[in-house]
Design a protein that fits this description.
The structure is a single chain. A hairpin with a 6-residue loop joins strand 4 and strand 5. It is built from 9 helices and 5 strands; from the N terminus they run βααββαααββαααα. It folds into 2 domains: about 1-85; about 85-180, no CATH class. The protein is of the alpha+beta class. About 50% of the residues lie in helices and about 15% in strands. Strands 1-3-2 form a 3-stranded antiparallel sheet.
Length: about 210
């Protein structure tokens, strides 16, 4: 991320554009992303004129500088149209929802987080490009408002617990089968019944169909 340049208050303020909560979704990372998106619309020579402070974009002209600030202002004003619909990128999603990268990947894969498409960008100073999923801001807002992250985490915890239980049951069954093969062949029926009574959770094995 580019290093923020401290605003020089002696610079002439040309225009300001406050970022609404609907645009930032309460995220400073999202606000910074919008700023970078708006700055990318400007010609390279004018990009340093645009600043962000307290979620307000501002266009400032240094004293004695000569630049086409009217053109720059018109570009930003036009680019700000429909800013609330700007796709949300991964690092913004993680900040807005307070989730980890692993959770984002998992929920995207199983469809709980719905992709709005992909974007491909070239990293600064590197030859390779990266492609990543972007998200509809209204979908992310809905996930946030309904606190779906909490529900998804509870679902994941329950699934993990069930998977551990099943794995433990299978391991216990394998151990029981190994110990059964090591004995003599006489009285197999009686030993099988005794083994059943000594195994904890035997009913779980049968109900899960593991013995069929």
């Amino acid at each position: 991320m580019p290093v923020r340049r401290k605003i020089d208050l002696t610079e002439k303020l040309i225009a300001e554009w406050p970022l609404s909560p609907a645009a930032t979704l309460g995220s400073s990372v999202r606000a910074r992303g919008i700023f970078l998106e708006m700055r990318a619309h400007l010609p390279v020579v004018l990009r340093k004129l645009l600043h962000i402070e307290s979620r307000v974009l501002s266009l400032r002209l240094p004293e004695g500088a000569d630049a086409d600030v009217e053109s720059a202002s018109a570009i930003i004003t036009q680019a700000m149209h429909n800013i609330e619909d700007l796709p949300v990128i991964p690092r913004e999603v993680e900040d807005i929802l307070t989730i980890s990268s692993a959770e984002r990947h998992r929920w995207l894969k199983d469809g709980r987080l719905q992709s709005a498409g992909t974007r491909t960008v070239k990293l600064r100073g590197r030859a390779r490009k990266i492609t990543f999923h972007v998200f509809d801001p209204r979908h992310i807002e809905d996930v946030l408002d309904r606190d779906l992250v909490t529900a998804w985490r509870d679902e994941d915890a329950a699934t993990s617990a069930e998977n551990r239980r099943r794995a433990a049951a299978k391991a216990a069954l394998k151990r029981a089968q190994k110990s059964g093969r090591g004995g003599s062949t006489s009285g197999d029926g009686e030993r099988d019944n005794a083994s059943r009574s000594n195994l904890r959770g035997w009913e779980d094995f049968e109900s899960e169909g593991l013995l069929r």
